[in-house]
Amino acid sequence: MEVPDRTRVDLPPHVPDTFEVFVNGVRQARGVDYEVLGRSLVFPRPVAQEGKLGFWRWLAMWLGIAGTYRRHENVDVVFEVGGRRGVVTGLTPRPLD
Fold first, then answer.
1. Per-position DSSP letters for 2-60, written without gaps between them
2. Domains in the chain, please, with CATH?
3. pLDDT band at 1 (very low <50, low <70, confident <90, very high)
């Protein structure tokens, strides 16, 4: 399985130009942990997502035989509009083309 070197996360249209980025609840620094390219965040590393569970994995979890221990990172953006804070959670990372 090939893992991309860089990851892109598209921002929703309602997010303003000033925002904070968190990965798994840890604040990320612009220019260090990510860059902004148009309306996308570009991370210089892979941002892992577990993806859909297959039938056998789901069945093993349901029967209590095994859990899911794959790496899964959540990307969240916090912003302010009109004096009110907003949060967009669970943004989907994609390989940078």
1. ---SSEEEEPPTTS-S-EEEEETTEEE-BTTTBEEETTEEEESS------PPPHHHHHH
2. 7-95 (2.60.40)
3. very low
